[in-house]
Amino acid sequence: MVASDGDACMHWAVGDYMLQTGHIPIRADVFSHTRFGQPIVSKEWLSEIIFAMAGRRAGLFGLVVVAALLIATTFALLHRQMAQETGNHAVAIFLALAAACAACTHWMARPHAFTFLLAVLWAGELRRFERGGTPRRLAICLGLLTLLWVNLHGGYLAGFLTLGIYWLGAGIELILVRTDPARGNGARHKLKVLTGVIGLCAVVSLLNPNGYELHVHNLGFLDSGFFTNWLAEYASSDFHAPDSRGFLAWLALTFLTLAIVRPRLSPSSAILLVVWTYYALYSVRNIPLLVIFVGPILASALAEAAPLWVRRLSGRLREVDETSRGWPIVGAVALAVVMSVPHPTEMIARKWPVAAVEFIKQHPEQFEGNMFNQYLWGGYLMEALPEHRVFVDGRTDFYGEPLLRQYDNTYLLHTNWQEALLQYHVSWTLMPTQSRLNLVLALLPNWHLAYSNDVATIFRKEP
Amino acid sequence: MNDASPNPEARPRWWLPSLSAMIWIALFLGLSLTSARIVLISADSDPALHRRLGEWMIQNRAIVRTDNLLHTYHGPVVSNEWLSEVLFAGAGHALGWNGSVFLAAALIATCFWLLHRLLLADGTDPVLASGLVFVAMLACSMHWLARPFLFTHLLALVFAWQLRWFQNERVTTRRMFLLLPALMVLWVNLHGAFITGLVLIAMYTLGSAISAWRQSTSLRRSKTLAALLLVCGVATLVNPNGWELHVHILNFLRSRELSTVTTEFASPNFHTEGMRGFVLLLLVMVTTLLVARPQPDTTDLLLVGGWGYLALLSARNVPIFALVTTPLLAQWITEFAQAHPDVWWMRLCRRWTSQITTLGRTAGDIPIVVAAACVLLVMAKPAVVGGASLLPTDFPPSRYPTSAVNYLRAHPGVVRGEMFNYFLWGGYLEFDFPERRPFIDSRNVMYGLDLTHDFLTVNEPKPGWEAVFAKYNVDWTILPVQHPLNRILELSPQWTLVFSNQLTLVFSRLP
Q1: Residues 6 or more apart in contact with residue B327 via CB below 8 angstroms
Q2: pLDDT tens digit sequence for B128-176
């Protein structure tokens, strides 16, 4: 959860800086030498502070515990919503497990874990309103969730998209039932309420340190073909990889539910299913949102068509659930496990430049001037080597396309590969040992090998 | 759906193309007369590789048994596409690259002409059939190249069609046993994906057996299909390599590493424009399931689920998914339309359909022959009357190292020893520069993982690249300007630049 990429460390480092300096939120960069002092649109400041507080308390393990709590709570809530809405505990358990299997590819100790939790609460409130909930409750809940979400993670746009789909669904419903005055009035009322809630949430979403600029920034990022093609987590699923099997099973479950159960879905449910399935196919990082938004729709369909033995099983599970008071026991067991398992204190040395960082710390006189580092290692270096500013890290939206293209030119050895090294006065590099950049630096007379092991290699430029 | 009564007095007009013929002609002309013809032969360099192999076989009147194209591999070759390679080479011999374009465009156009005919024969509304064929075309178009798998698209459609009609009792068992094994003999010699046909029969067999078991009816049909599967399986042995072909293909499919280094075996990348047709097809499929709420039988579930899975696994299966599922979509939408005759879009469809049907009764498929003959005449102009081609078709210098090859041919002394080449240029170099053998081409099925790993070590490049060069006596390279190995060779005192232009750098090792 912390070692898949360097972003967990990066958010921790940013949050730690905010706690240390009291600059909440951070307004200008202090971590890189390439964009030092440039203004930052701090879109995840609140979650970064929460992760940093956990990190201060228990190091990397603290980050893991926060993320695990968020993810476990998300899927517990998803299960509870499905069980309450369908009345079928067996179906709810089955779908919650299927959802967890599909979503687990993106379980990392990063701010998007807050989006999982907020998405499940958001979707639950919208479905409650569809089933006859009051407009007042919908407005209050979504307003509060918006306030939290815009300060926790940029994924709040998923909430707005879903709200927009419910609005569109209400509009289509209004057209479909136009000949039935009673149902027409209901659909019209729903459309009015959703329009008002969209307006309210839009206003509340401005209550963040960056105001409307946050939206401009995030929409610009998503609109950029460069970023969505450059970042691995925005790539489509590789169905050859074993970790995509959960998503594949989810797609199969969706197909079989539609083809065999043949549910009669409301317009909003149908659009949600189509839109989020497309987004999940488009980008791996949308898979958790797909299962959160669409899981309850499939649960309702499956519960309606459940055979007798599933209903009996569900009844028995419900009895157990109603009579049990298991939370204290579950909590105690979880706490015991958390306290007893070995706590990770450092990143995995066979994947991260832990030894190289140690070498740099032991020989500070050798490493003066600016560094060129691998993109994925940037976040880790921000946390582990704060005395040196990085060339680049996981804050791609902050660095922007021109700098990342320059990084690519050097990293991939394009014809102008030396341009970034010269422009940013790079005097040493910290790259994976297998990197092609090391091969050319070894051929340059003014660059020398300073350190190398199986993971990382450092080259230093002569003054 | 078609409520227009036939007019017995309507006289056939041979010059008027039917809707299906219009699809054939539009596709064929679009692919063979526009810049799409360049894409057909040069989107990758495999058309050149297949043509080169075919030419060798025609010249030597023998099947390729050992490789003589690469300097890195001298082992046995399992020729799994020899017949299509000979056909492409024959067409190329007669008309140059336009011959390959003609054959590929005709195969693609025939595939969708047949799909349209099949939908109409199933009772699909002509407007709906045309729309669905258009969606299927978009889904398949990302894989339109002058390569042997075009035969697989056509034959997969024929197999799916015959099996579907057999299930609906529209063709006899005798016809199935006469037609499909014969086609399978053809298929196994045309393309390695003949296994698609066996998978289709297996799906119908399994679907039929499950349906019979659930409905407690006779297993007669599934037994017939199982026997057909066996006969077609035996028919696949009629190829120059016998059962070794099957071992060869299964080894490739089982090797995750080999199949993942081949781009077209990768999962679809939904960021690319080429996948928009597939997305549209999936959208039509899901919308149909949500709105029409059809009752697919077990075989339908197996076909959509199975080929859907295979399409998500490998982008190259998307066309098969499209061709197999389009008739099912047509059936489901047609059933829905018949149950809801007053839906507004059905009324609109019927209005258009009645006009088309009135025209269609007098139209035919003869214009296809006329269109093909006209294009053939245009393409054959240099061979018949001499002079330059009216449709110049060749590998574009903006993507292939044509200038570098011309230079090296004119100055053979500037390089010596063996070559290291860019992966995507392998087939092109084998065809256009046969006097020098490349390091690698796209046939990783043939040369296996060891050479692939060696190639990747240099191509990355990673530490150890020099050892690979020493192992294969590589003394010169031909690579795109941006290739990272060029940066190393530029700085290396043992290497010198002997050719450069905007696309290509050629480095040679100093003596």
Answers
A1: B115, B118, B119, B122, B160, B161, B164
A2: 999 999 999 999 998 899 999 999 999 999 999 999 999 999 999 999 9
Q: Rounded distance, CA A247 to CA A277, Å?
A: 10
Higher-scoring residue by pLDDT: A90, B354: A90
Task: Pick the more confident residue, B150 or A6.
Answer: B150
Cβ contacts of B298 within 8 Å, gap of 6 or more: B206, B207, B208, B210, B211, B214
Contacts 24+ apart (CB under 8 A), B56-65: B57/B82, B57/B85, B57/B86, B57/B89, B58/B86, B58/B89, B58/B90, B58/B93, B63/B240
* ipTM surpasses cut 0.85: yes
Nearest residue to A108 (alpha-carbon basis) of A189, A3, A19 = A3
Q: State the Cα–Cα distance between residues A412 and A435, nearest whole angstrom.
A: 9
- Phi and psi at B498, nearest 5°, equal -110, -15
Contact B279, B270 (CB under 8 A): yes
- What span, in angstroms and rounded, lies between the C-alpha atoms of A73 and B252? 44
Q: Tell me how far the alpha carbon of residue A70 is from its chain's centroid.
A: 12
Mean pLDDT, rounded, for B482-492? 96
Which chain B residue shows the shortest CA-CA distance from A276? B283
Question: Which of B269, B287, B313 is closest, CB to CB, to A240?
Answer: B313
* Structure confidence by residue, pLDDT tens digits, A261-280: 999 999 999 999 999 999 99
Q: Nearest 5°: phi and psi at A4?
A: -70, -40
Minimum CA–CA partner of B275 in chain A: A282
The C-alpha atoms of residue A228 and residue A283 are separated, in whole angstroms, by 9
Contacts B269 to A, Cβ<8 Å: 235-236
Q: Do B259 and A240 touch (CB under 8 A)?
A: yes
The pLDDT value given to residue B393: 84
The residue ranges of every structural domain in chain B are 14-43+78-369, 402-509
Rounded Cα–Cα distance for residues A215 and A201 (Å): 13
Pair type for strands B504-509 and B495-500 = antiparallel
Interface test with B, best of A274, A412, A440, A447 (most B CBs within 10 A): A440
Residue B256: pLDDT band with limits 50, 70, 90 = confident
Pair of tokens at residue A89: 């505990």
Average pLDDT over every residue of B308-324: 95
- From the candidates A239, A290, A304, A408, which should be mutated to test the interface with B, based on the most B CB atoms within 10 A? A239
Residues B295, B214: Cα–Cα separation, whole Å: 15
- What type of residue sits at position B14? W
Tell me: pLDDT of B363 over 80.
no
Taken as a whole, chain A contains a residue count of 463
